[in-house]
Design goal:
By secondary structure, this protein is α/β, with parallel strands linked by helices. Helices cover 33% and strands 23% of the residues.
């Protein structure tokens, strides 16, 4: 099975087109104002119109309230919620059920964390997947750093690899982790929030090579 791929932090319509042309499975919009890749509701409304059927739209949230998510979904029809903050399994489950959306949780791989136990906590709460990202003491993703891929667990839940991925290392990342999916943002940018079409195409070619081996 081919490794799935999401390009996150989309801020421009032309980047949506580039992602779709390259064959990515999902686009990600960041709804976290401190991020340089964050988009407003109005921006997201325009961007989502460029996303065709069979390409999923993921909304990334960091410690958002249910009311904020409900208000957004009135005009931005997201397919999946990505919780990227300090949300507990119970909070993720409750908010996702309230808006009738599937969801997954991003977990930063800290040195002292029992990653398998943490994944299973969210799995029991109904997560469709769990994303493993590099840990940073201040940033919530988009760090450009990776963690030790040899520690990537093999469990009976779809696991998404993120953190420091780029066109040069994605093939090896897939071969090492056997991840269900990969998630990239900064690794395919010419500047923060500005995607590079050639880098996206090279990244997806690496995904295909890694999946085929």
């Amino acid at each position: 099975m081919r490794t799935r791929a999401k390009i996150c932090g989309i801020t421009r319509v032309e980047d949506v087109h580039a992602v779709v042309r390259a064959g990515a499975d999902a686009v990600g919009f960041v709804f976290y104002p401190p991020s340089p890749r964050s988009v407003t509701v109005a921006q997201a409304e325009a961007l989502i119109q460029a996303v065709p059927a069979y390409v999923q739209v993921v909304g990334l949230f960091v410690n958002s309230t249910l009311e904020e998510i409900q208000l957004l979904l009135k005009t931005v029809p997201l397919d999946i919620l990505q919780f990227h903050g300090d949300e507990t399994p119970e909070q993720c489950q409750s908010m996702a059920q309230a808006v009738s959306r599937r969801w997954y949780k991003a977990i930063q791989v800290k040195p002292e964390l029992d990653i398998v136990a943490e994944i299973q906590r969210y799995q029991k709460a109904g997560a469709s997947a769990v994303l493993l990202d590099a840990w940073h003491p201040e940033l919530k993703g988009g760090t450009g750093h990776s963690f030790d891929w040899n520690t990537f667990p093999q469990l009976n839940i779809p696991l998404i690899l993120a953190g420091g991925l780029n066109p040069d290392n994605i093939e090896q990342a897939i071969l090492t982790t056997h991840a269900y999916a990969v998630d990239v943002s900064g690794g395919v940018e010419s500047a923060k929030g500005i995607k590079d079409q050639q880098l996206i195409e090279r990244f997806m070619q690496g995904v295909l090579r890694g999946s085929a081996k």
